[in-house]
Design brief:
Chain B: Keywords: Acetylation, ATP synthesis, CF(0), Hydrogen ion transport, Ion transport, Membrane, Mitochondrion, Mitochondrion inner membrane, Phosphoprotein, Transmembrane, Transmembrane helix, Transport. The complex is a heterodimer of chains A (about 230) and B (about 140). With about 230 residues, chain A is mainly α. Chain A has helices at about 20-25, 40-60, 65, 70-85, 100-120, 120-125, 140-150, 150-180, 185-225, and strands at about 15, 15-20. Chain A has one domain (about 5-225). Chain A starts with 12 loop residues before the first strand and ends with a helix. Chain B has helices at about 5-15, 15-35, 45-60, 75-80, 85-105, 110-130, 130-135. The chains are: A mainly alpha (about 230), B mainly alpha (about 140). At the A-B interface, helix 2 of A face helix 5 and helix 6 of B.
Chain lengths: ~230, ~140
């Protein structure tokens, strides 16, 4: 039980070949592209969902910020589908790896911040000082705001990693507990099984919510900086 | 207008047993041309279509172009070695497999059953991949 707990999170390799590339590319097969005006059911559903998300998320931006729509929509689709596919039995979820989440968070955050600094320098620098602070507090507050700015990509990546990993770990542990308890006292096993069902429902919600939160925060950073 | 390649095709059909490889390749080319000139399969002579399907199973097809399910078991190693492993060959194979897979996802009236088949295949693939670690979790008294 000691080292088996984390073996599901190691990068999958087969005969030395990186299988993880195939696993990351797999969700793209579930989103077919189509050139027609009226599509089949799957593509129509996805187009409806995409339209809903883009309207809800990109309406707050101005023209310059709306150029990021493609990036943010593909981001939310990727994170959502990867998280949901990880709930299948024995699947490997790429978003549990901190390396990948950092690779997603840092470039997006840096892009938003650098756009802000290049195009609206004064306004971006003004974010470091909230309005109406008393004068003696200013130096300390600037330092605190700088730290909070630089911690944003770390927080984005670690939030996603920790949520998904913790959820998967809880499912493993409670599932193992249910199995071990069936031979000792079936009533407790039943209670644990109900907890497992509730957890799985929560995990489905978390998978989609995490995608949403990630993308929402990136769009917020973008809104500040365009 | 499309009668010209159709007549050419029937002409070649008569000699297919004697002309082996060239005929098969020419058959495929002629069929493709005929399909390009008239837009859909139904416009082709239905009798002709039966003949083309027969030509794949009944005639003596060279080993290289046989489909996998029609290869005899003893010839299997030589069949595998004869497939072209050039990058364009692999790209062609990937494209063909991709469009065959598309039948599970990109269908006009797709249903939940087709999609769940794909997800189940994914689960089985991951089970096979991680079997080594899963071996230790079997319910045994002594591991």
């Amino acid at each position: 039980m000691n080292e088996n707990l984390f073996t599901s999170f190691i990068t999958p390799m087969m005969l030395g070949l990186p299988l993880v590339t195939l696993i990351i590319l797999f969700p793209s097969l579930l989103f077919p592209s189509s050139n027609r005006l009226i599509n089949n059911r799957l593509v129509s559903l996805q187009q409806w969902a995409l339209q809903l998300m883009s309207k809800q998320m990109m309406s707050i931006h101005n023209t310059k910020g709306q150029t990021w729509t493609l990036m943010l929509m593909s981001l939310i689709l990727f994170i959502g589908s990867t998280n949901l596919l990880g709930l299948l039995p024995h699947s490997f979820t790429p978003t549990t790896q901190l390396s990948m989440n950092l690779g997603m968070a840092i470039p997006l955050w840096a892009g938003a911040v650098i756009t802000g600094f290049r195009n609206k320098t004064k306004a971006s620098l003004a974010h470091f000082l909230p309005q109406g602070t008393p004068t003696p507090l200013i130096p300390m507050l600037v330092i605190i705001e700088t730290i909070s700015l630089f911690i944003q990509p770390m927080a984005l990546a670690v939030r996603l990693t920790a949520n998904i990993t913790a959820g998967h770990l809880l499912i493993y542990l409670i599932g193992g507990a249910t199995l071990a308890l069936t031979s000792i006292s079936p009533t407790t096993a039943l209670i644990t099984f109900i907890i497992l069902i509730l957890l799985t429902i929560l995990e489905f919600a978390v998978a989609m919510i995490q995608a949403y939160v990630f993308t929402l925060l990136v769009s917020l950073y973008l809104h500040d900086n365009t | 207008m499309y009668y010209v390649p159709v007549m050419l095709h029937t002409f070649l059909e008569i000699f297919r047993k004697t002309l082996k490889e060239d005929v098969i390749i020419l058959n495929v080319q002629v069929m493709e041309q005929a399909q390009k000139k008239c837009c859909s399969n139904q416009e082709l002579n239905p009798g002709l279509k039966m003949m083309t399907e027969d030509s794949k199973t009944a005639s003596v097809v060279p080993l290289k172009e046989e489909k996998l399910l029609e290869v005899d078991l003893g010839e299997l190693p030589s069949w595998i070695l004869m497939r072209d492993f050039t990058p364009s060959g692999i790209a062609g194979a990937v494209q063909r497999g991709y469009y065959r897979y598309y039948k599970y996802v990109n269908v006009k009236r797709g249903s939940l059953a087709r999609l769940s088949l794909v997800l189940a295949a994914n689960a089985v693939f991951n089970y096979r991949r991680s079997y080594k670690e899963l071996k230790h979790e079997r319910p045994r008294k002594y591991h």
